[in-house]
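Here is a tokenized protein:
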Amino acid sequence: MICGMCGREIPDELPGQESRCGTCPGGCRKIHCPYCGYGNPVLPGYLKKIEKKKEGDK
């Protein structure tokens, strides 16, 4: 995933990374960039498949 704020690639799994931060009321549904802290919205499963397909075409 590419961060919408800084443009750096966010690794799929970082050591110690949780799926949600737990500080947002109602539960966090964002992926926080480890470089700038921006909360990127989580991609739905069908969009992840489309993104991977596009990457395979390049």
Summary: DSSP finds one helix and two strands in the chain. Strands lie at 30-32, 39-41. The chain has one domain: 1-58.
